[in-house]
């Protein structure tokens, strides 16, 4: 089977990182797929990881990060990731499982920050160069659950410290983007136990992969 690009999306604390690694193990155990690369966005290359630190923890000497600067750093990091990691991995037959991708920018910067839609569209098109995921799994939780799951983290980053109102805007933007999208995006209720979430994800993957094998 040709390599595939799967992305896991959702609010902070929705279980993305856990699910990314569960998918990796499942694809190996059940389907014998060994060539799998996992990514996290923003980040994933030396330069993108430096940008990730700036995006998450802000500038130096108390200089605030403007919304447009945040957006440009996120896309600069993504360009490094797509060009240096994702595209080469896919062309070498690796499956790529991404912890966040472009939908996050549309939801967080577009929905949450209210950044200009046209600017987002232009950047998406240019930076991703039409590299869309084959499948996106959106783990849906309420902003209240999100806050309760991340509150025990040692440090909250700039974005995690945002208000519930911000996360409400992000979530409703995710919903709008999903309902308007022509891409394959599956919504999973991630307020259930992690065990149930993983079972649903695996069941869906089985169905999707059987379908791909039939073609
Ligand atoms: N469905 C779930 N039910 C309860 N706790 C969960 C669930 N999914 C994730 N968690 C917990 O929430 C925290 C954040 O999970 P993580 O996978 O890091 O999410 P994300 O990458 O989306 O921020 C972790 O402590 C994890 O064990
Ligand atoms: C990829 C991406 C992330 N972000 C935000 C969401 C997260 O708060 C942060 C990434 O931090 P991370 O710790 O990877 O997220 P999570 O808490 O979900 O595991 O960056 C954006 O605002 N826009 C983007 O395009």
TrEMBL record:
Pfam family, one: Thymidylate_kin
CDD domains: TMPK
GO MF terms held by the record: dTMP kinase activity
Catalytic activity: dTMP + ATP = dTDP + ADP
Transferase keyword on record: yes
Class of the enzyme per the UniProt entry, highest EC level: transferase
InterPro entries the record matches: P-loop_NTPase (IPR027417), Thymidylate_kin-like_dom (IPR039430), Thymidylate_kin_CS (IPR018095), Thymidylate_kinase (IPR018094)
Chain ranges of the Thymidylate kinase-like domain: 8-195
EC numbers: 2.7.4.9
Keyword vocabulary terms for this entry: ATP-binding, Kinase, Nucleotide biosynthesis, Nucleotide-binding, Transferase
Binding site for ATP: 10-17
Job of this protein: Phosphorylation of dTMP to form dTDP in both de novo and salvage pathways of dTTP synthesis.
Cited HAMAP family: Thymidylate_kinase
Family affiliation: Belongs to the thymidylate kinase family.
PANTHER family per UniProt: THYMIDYLATE KINASE, UMP-CMP KINASE 2, MITOCHONDRIAL
Protein name according to UniProt: Thymidylate kinase
Native source species: Candidatus Blochmannia ocreatus
Gene, per the UniProt record: tmk
